[in-house]
Task: inverse folding
């Protein structure tokens, strides 16, 4: 049967190398006729190869010159959640000179790295379902415009590849269950925390799940950091102050493969906006958040965590259209 991961990687790359007039025929060979692809805001739901091309692939190809995929990791396996299915997950960048508007974001004319988190469900060699988070907020930042009063509690850096450089179709697949076990242990301890220190038992130190020097790579608006103190200062504390009742873990998919694991919820999190976040004053609104997390586990501890969040949608729920606000600043 071959390696589903490698075949999918090759197919996705081909969508950015094929001639424009061949795209629809090519897409029909990789997507089921009724394939459903859910894309983060402002794109939405795309059904079937034709819509997937016109709503996702063609706009990306038109915006970047030349548009190419640069995959950081691609792995997958059988879903541990009841939702089921074989899933292939990936983090990629679409790169190229940003020369044409993309979903309302105005181009910079400069090289851009648009990060995307992807969960693809495959049946009989065809993609039948997918969910993608496109970090549009980070793309806006790369154009030199920032439409919010606050932002980037951590450092806004381009997502790096895994430190071990083995995230593309890892070979030690039998270790995936153990990697996912570590991640699930961490997730089970997240909901109980000290409101003063923002610490949680089972996270760091004796019996913890995070390596002392772990790296945490966050999306546009949050940024990246390292170690538990950095994680608390640059993400956890601001987030929990703003959303103290947040509940997460509502995942449709959890997979492990090699030293890697990935989880995603659509949405994963529910919460109430109780304090200022990214410069947006508390609205008191009940909110939801779409989430993707990708992890590398080493010696039984989480060494790296890449995080994609649909912040365009979250901010819309808070009453802020960041794409429109960014356009007004030009």
Result:
């Amino acid at each position: 049967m071959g390696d589903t991961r490698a075949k999918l990687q090759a197919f996705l790359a081909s969508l950015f190398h094929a001639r424009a007039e061949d795209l629809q025929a090519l897409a029909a060979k990789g997507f089921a006729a009724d394939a459903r692809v859910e894309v983060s805001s402002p794109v939405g739901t795309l059904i079937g190869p034709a819509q997937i091309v016109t709503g996702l692939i063609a706009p990306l190809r038109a915006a970047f010159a030349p548009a190419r995929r640069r995959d950081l990791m691609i792995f997958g396996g059988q879903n541990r959640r009841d939702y089921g299915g074989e899933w292939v997950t990936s983090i990629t960048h679409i790169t190229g000179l940003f020369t044409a508007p993309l979903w309302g974001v105005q181009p910079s004319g400069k090289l851009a790295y648009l990060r995307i988190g992807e969960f693809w469900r495959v049946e009989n060699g065809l993609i039948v379902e997918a969910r993608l988070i496109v970090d549009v907020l980070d793309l806006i930042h790369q154009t030199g415009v920032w439409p919010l009063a606050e932002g980037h509690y951590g450092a806004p850096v381009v997502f790096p590849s895994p430190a071990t450089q083995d995230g593309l179709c890892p070979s030690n697949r039998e270790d995936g269950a153990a990697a996912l076990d570590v991640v699930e242990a961490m997730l089970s301890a997240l909901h109980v925390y000290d409101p003063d220190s923002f610490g949680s038992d089972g996270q760091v130190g004796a019996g913890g799940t995070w390596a002392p020097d772990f790296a945490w790579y966050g999306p546009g608006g949050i940024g990246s950091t390292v170690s538990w103190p950095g994680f608390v200062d640059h993400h956890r504390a601001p987030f929990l102050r703003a959303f103290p009742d947040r509940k997460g873990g509502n995942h449709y998919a959890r997979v492990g493969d090699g030293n890697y694991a990935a989880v995603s919820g659509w949405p994963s999190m529910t919460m109430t906006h109780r304090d200022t976040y990214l410069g947006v004053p508390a609205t008191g609104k009940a909110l939801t958040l779409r989430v993707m997390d990708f992890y590398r586990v080493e010696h039984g501890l989480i060494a790296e965590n890449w995080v994609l969040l649909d912040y365009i949608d979250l901010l819309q729920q808070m009453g802020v259209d960041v794409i429109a606000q960014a356009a007004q600043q030009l």
About this structure: Residues 48-63 form the longest helix (16 residues).
